[in-house]
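Narrative progress, year one. The postdoctoral researcher (J.K.) led the effort to move from monomer predictions toward full complexes, under supervision of the PI. The following entry was the first complex the group processed end to end, covering 492 residues in total.
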Amino acid sequence: MNLILIHPSEIDAANRVVLADGRARHIIHVLKATPGKKLRIGRLNGPLGEGRIERVEGSAVVLECTFETAPPERPQIDLVLALPRPKVMKRLWAQLAELGIGRIVLLRAEKVERCYFDSHVVEPGFFNELLFEGLQQARCTHLPEVLVRPLFKPFVEDELDGLFASHQKLLADPAGAGRLDDVFQPGRKTDRAVLAIGPEGGWTTYELDMLRTRGFGLFGMGERILRTDTATIGLLSMLADRMHAR
Amino acid sequence: MNLILIHPSEIDAANRVVLADGRARHIIHVLKATPGKKLRIGRLNGPLGEGRIERVEGSAVVLECTFETAPPERPQIDLVLALPRPKVMKRLWAQLAELGIGRIVLLRAEKVERCYFDSHVVEPGFFNELLFEGLQQARCTHLPEVLVRPLFKPFVEDELDGLFASHQKLLADPAGAGRLDDVFQPGRKTDRAVLAIGPEGGWTTYELDMLRTRGFGLFGMGERILRTDTATIGLLSMLADRMHAR
């Protein structure tokens, strides 16, 4: 936990926060912090700041908060991901928040089992905690917006263009002969990109066509067949590296 | 499991293999394969090939194997990793094999707890199974060579130069001001690279100096503080992307 993340509703009019959950335990038992000590804090979807420990009362910690004026930049990358099996998705949540994603769409595809969408891993009560964990690791305050879409066609036909109107659109699939650099446009006048990653068996030809028609540039990742979480982390890192380089 | 990986000692003089473990269960219950069906196989540290199911006897499968003449290219990237905490290292093993690493050195650093080296996660009996899992996922036959080194100084002074004599040497640390492209030399006449990744708290100045003196080029990964496994997968993907691009 490299940042104590605070929800706006937890902050009172005098900029004080009382923590009594895992964050307090972390401050008391891991950081072994005492009154007067200043901690790095962040307001959810807002600015970073500093929390001075006013007092420790049993298992609760009272912080006096000061925040910077402006929040850090919103992550520039969005993700459309064919929902992997629940075990893999569970591992991935915190890592997505760590890497910094603006919006995550979890999408059905033909090679995605429908029952994955009944799993608790796509419920906010489950994944928000993991996203918070990732944000606190990476010192980020921007909670990714999560959309769960169990129907491919209506999402692509009715929502996709509106959600990613000005984005550079990239489509990863084993069917792609080229590499990321063959489709990524470093000089393009947009500061956002969306990456679509299919199921381990790949998108179907129909799905690829639907996405390509809407401006997605297809590329591959070489011969190795990676588990979805490995591929996702690798591709997001490669893309972030290029967005930074512009 | 996208490949059935077979140890050379399992293959008899007539190129037959009898499988009776998880591989057989996978063939019978997941692939639902029957006699005559051909499966993608690989000989550990050797070539890829094809296994024709000769018969299924209870829970055992008999394969008749043919192998290609030459093994696939050995992965071009080696890794020196400050051993992360056991829980994180456990998650990482299969993913390292998936991504394709020639040699993995797990190293002590000042900010690595010594007790991590007493964990079962650094015992071959534990990690080989996870490495196999990653190889079978990625359709790779090259088992990474693993060296566990609980002492930083003697490893760096006595072994490092010999192990990575002709390698391009790269050093990831939050202290690095530049990015990978500032130190990576795309035109260099070597086909191997070694990437050194420190603990989450970073290498110490002494450790950085020791590695830089031996030719490692220092770079950073931006402002986000990533968990070791996320950083490792991201950096290895970025590097593989560049090695391929040459």
